[in-house]
């Protein structure tokens, strides 16, 4: 178990006056673990994974990937920190807006209250964009419910806070900014009544709890599958399809997701 202590690698860290030896050679096992856990593949980006994971390990006094893999079996906070470090949460308001417009026109034809899922939501911009676009089109807030989920707990925390930088609002007009946000120095705080329209949860689409969210009328799953390999994409699509109320309704994927 403590083989990593004795391997002949560059000694770089000192713990309680004991010189310890780092061994970050086993990147492949970390990549496989992370793909099985989250779906995210680093198969073609092992050097990026190595650089991020090494920095992560050093900041947690962990000296090898074997040690990291052993620790995260029982330390769930550490495992969540690793997920937060290795996922990419880039998003912004009114991204690929034509799909949101399509959704709005579909919702306007509905006769009952509808449920919309954003999986993944990242920091909330997509879910809130849908809420804003529906309100702008005259849909009553009592006629829809939006759920946003993401595997990254920091992203979900930020989504719930609803505090955004200028660059996240780059696609929003001056009118929309002033109607839905309060400017606080260089940040924009989303109004509470819009925040109330979305429920956010930390959730991994490959875990059973995801299906406990129930079925949805419309599903957005944009810019997550791009991080998955082909078999994992297929598995994710099957799971997402099983969450539809009506199997005839298409899921909204991002333009690059299905290649
Ligand atoms: C680039 S963001 C996309 C956000 C938004 N849908 C958009 O298109 O702007 C990708 C998100 O997928 C999330 N993600 C990756 N694997 C996931 C999984 N297995 N379950 C849930 N979320 C996941 C990441 O944490 C990240 O926030």
Explain what this protein looks like in three dimensions.
The chain has a five-stranded parallel sheet with strand order 8-4-3-9-10, with helices on one face. The chain has a three-stranded antiparallel sheet with strand order 5-7-6. It has a two-stranded antiparallel sheet with strand order 1-2. The chain has helices at 3-6, 27-38, 46-59, 65-74, 76-86, 97-108, 125-136, 153-161, 174-180, 192-195, 230-241; strands spanning 11-15, 18-21, 114-118, 144-150, 163-165, 181-184, 187-190, 198-202, 218-221, 252-253. A hairpin with a 2-residue loop joins strand 1 and strand 2 (18-21). The model is unreliable at 1-9 (pLDDT under 50). The protein starts with a helix and ends in a 6-residue tail after the last strand. It folds into two domains: 3-86, no CATH class; 97-253, Vaccinia Virus protein VP39 (Rossmann fold, 3-Layer(aba) Sandwich). With 259 residues, the protein is of the alpha/beta class. Bound molecules: S-adenosylmethionine (SAM). S-adenosylmethionine (SAM) binds next to loops.
């Amino acid at each position: 178990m403590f083989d990593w202590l004795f391997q002949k690698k560059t000694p770089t860290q000192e713990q309680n006056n004991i010189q310890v030896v780092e061994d970050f050679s086993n990147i492949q096992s970390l990549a496989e673990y992370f793909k099985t856990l989250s779906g995210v593949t680093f198969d073609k980006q092992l050097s990026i994974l190595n650089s991020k994971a090494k920095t992560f390990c050093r900041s947690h006094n962990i000296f090898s990937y074997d040690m990291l893999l052993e620790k995260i079996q029982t330390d769930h906070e550490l495992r969540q920190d690793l997920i937060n470090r290795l996922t990419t949460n880039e998003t912004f308001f009114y991204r690929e807006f034509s799909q949101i417009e399509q959704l709005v026109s579909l919702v306007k034809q509905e006769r009952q209250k509808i449920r919309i899922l954003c999986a993944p939501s990242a920091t909330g911009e997509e879910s809130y964009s849908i809420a804003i676009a529906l309100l702008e089109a005259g849909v009553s807030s009592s006629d829809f419910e939006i759920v946003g989920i993401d595997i990254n707990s920091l992203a979900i925390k930020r989504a719930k806070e609803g505090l955004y930088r200028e660059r996240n609002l780059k696609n929003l007009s001056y009118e929309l900014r002033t109607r839905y946000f309060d400017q606080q120095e260089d940040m924009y705080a989303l109004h509470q009544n819009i925040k109330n329209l979305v429920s956010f949860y930390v959730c991994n689409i490959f875990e059973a709890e995801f299906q406990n969210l129930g079925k949805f009328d419309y599903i957005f799953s944009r810019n997550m599958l791009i991080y998955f390999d082909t078999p994992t994409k297929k598995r994710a699509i099957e799971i997402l399809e099983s969450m539809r109320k009506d199997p005839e309704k298409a899921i909204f994927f991002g333009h690059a997701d299905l290649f």
